[in-house]
Amino acid sequence: MTVLPPVGEIPLDQDEAEAAFAAILDGRVDDEATIAFLVALSDRGESASEIAGAAQAMRARMIGIAAPENAIDVCGTGGDGHHTLNVSTAVSLVVAACGVPVAKHGNRAASSKAGAADTLEALGLNLDRAVETAEETLADLGICFLFAGKHHPAMGRIMPIRRAIGRRTIFNLMGPLANPAGVQRQLVGIARPAYVPIYADALARLGTARSFVVSGDEGLDELSLAGGNEVADVHGGAILMHRIAPGDAGLATAPVDAIRGGDAAYNAAAFQALLDGQPGPYRDAVLFNAAAALMVAGDVTDWHEGVEEAAETIDKGLALGLLRCWIDALK
């Protein structure tokens, strides 16, 4: 069995972290040692080099797909405890309907009541077929769903370990950094505002054309309508930190409770109402985050333009039409 390096005050460098997580993912470390290592990292706080190295190990073991060069992903780390409606999934559909290819990476619910996979399935999407034809639908329709369980088989042996730990570990941070389509543009939401610059540093180390790392002040893993948000604009190796509030995008503030979700059926009904043009905080949350994704994609230049394009796409029925085409294509 491989002996993991000790976790001290000085972080592991990127190569050391990659080697450690390669051993963990390959099953060359016993469970007890793995648990101790992950808990020690979490207690001390994971560094950018450790997050990047862990993600590299995960990327090296994933089952990838071919994707258009300009494809993006919209994904959160989850685990924020707010149990909101499926914002990033709705944003993915709206942005794809704007003409930007979206390789949506997601999973079933872990800490929430309905993950991206659960809600899409409740909307009528054949999830098994979506997984089988992801590369095809991304090429033909400009959207796909990359089910994490299929593309990251090495994570299968990690799930019992994560359940045994019963708390956040570095694995909560790795998913968005290991998109199977190898996207170079991302909108990533994380649940810890103070960690935005660290996570952005990890993303910069891994290489990106342009990405936003965002977190609501209340610990929401997406841009929040409730108040302020931390944003790291990662452009190549450069990172620019700034603050953004809903008013900066011409949107009203709203408490997190206003977009509180439920089970898959509940979230799917709200999703359908959104696509039918229903106004309200859920729509505004989607517009806010869609504007960020469109900026990352280079489709718009500012927040107001992004909100306007996303709203027009919903109101013209383009997002709903895309969902129907996607459902029909998988029958």
From TrEMBL:
NCBIfam families for the chain:
trpD
Record field: catalytic activity? N-(5-phospho-beta-D-ribosyl)anthranilate + diphosphate = 5-phospho-alpha-D-ribose 1-diphosphate + anthranilate
- The UniProt annotation places anthranilate 2 binding at R162
Q: Does the keyword Nucleotidyltransferase apply?
A: no
Sites binding Mg(2+) 1 sit at S88, E222
Q: How is the cofactor bound?
A: Binds 2 magnesium ions per monomer.
Question: Any keyword Amino-acid biosynthesis?
Answer: yes
Q: Enumerate the cofactors the protein uses.
A: Mg(2+)
Q: Name the species this protein comes from.
A: Novosphingobium capsulatum
Q: What does this protein do?
A: Catalyzes the transfer of the phosphoribosyl group of 5-phosphorylribose-1-pyrophosphate (PRPP) to anthranilate to yield N-(5'-phosphoribosyl)-anthranilate (PRA).
Positions that bind Mg(2+) 2: D221, E222
Q: Where does 5-phospho-alpha-D-ribose 1-diphosphate bind?
A: 76, 79-80, 84, 86-89, 104-112, 116
Q: What is the name of the gene encoding this protein?
A: trpD
Q: Where is the Glycosyl transferase family domain?
A: 70-320
Top enzyme category: transferase
Quaternary arrangement and interactors, per the entry? Homodimer.
* Ligand binding (anthranilate 1): G76, N107
From the UniProt record, give the pathway where this protein acts: Amino-acid biosynthesis; L-tryptophan biosynthesis; L-tryptophan from chorismate: step 2/5
Q: Which EC number applies?
A: 2.4.2.18
Name of this chain's protein? Anthranilate phosphoribosyltransferase
Per the similarity annotation, which family is this?
Belongs to the anthranilate phosphoribosyltransferase family.
Q: State a single Gene Ontology molecular function.
A: anthranilate phosphoribosyltransferase activity
Query: From what superkingdom does this record's organism come?
Result: Bacteria
